[in-house]
Amino acid sequence: LVMAVLAMGSWWLVRSMPDLWSGAADKPVRKDPDYHLENFSTQVFNAQGRRTGQVSGEKARHYPDTDELHIDGIRLLAVNDEGVEVRASARQGVATGDGERITLIGGVHVVRQASSSSPRLELRGERVVALQNEEKLVSELPVEITRDHDRFTANNMDFDLKSGQYQLKGRVHGLLQPQNR
Of all helices (H) and strands (E), which one includes residue 14? Predict the structure, then answer.
């Protein structure tokens, strides 16, 4: 009788304890935002303490299921190793969790300041993807580029900020102004 009571007690104890040997049950990831930001600014510094980037905006929401940050009124600043600044703004932006890819949407305006090796460049479009590690701007929608006094329009663009070269595709139109000497 005592052995039967101990056996039933052991059985009850094992059934009521959580299963320690099986993996944790996968919980579904939330689809609604897990945090919100308002009137924020974040800065990135390199190992030497020099600022290399900044992201700011009016409102932001983080979605954990896609690990994306959706930003209203986004403003970006990127500074390369030579100290050349690239500033961008748009009505909305979507940044990946690792910060590698930022999609600018609606009224995109990008300005790269003039440097010793390249003139001032201004870019306008409706959807531009900034690839941070590659230092590239890519657009599958029409863009307008103003380089110093020259003006270009194209249906697609792949712009390498490091080399200053861009590939324009689709219907391309260019207006080259004579240089003043």
Answer: helix 2-16
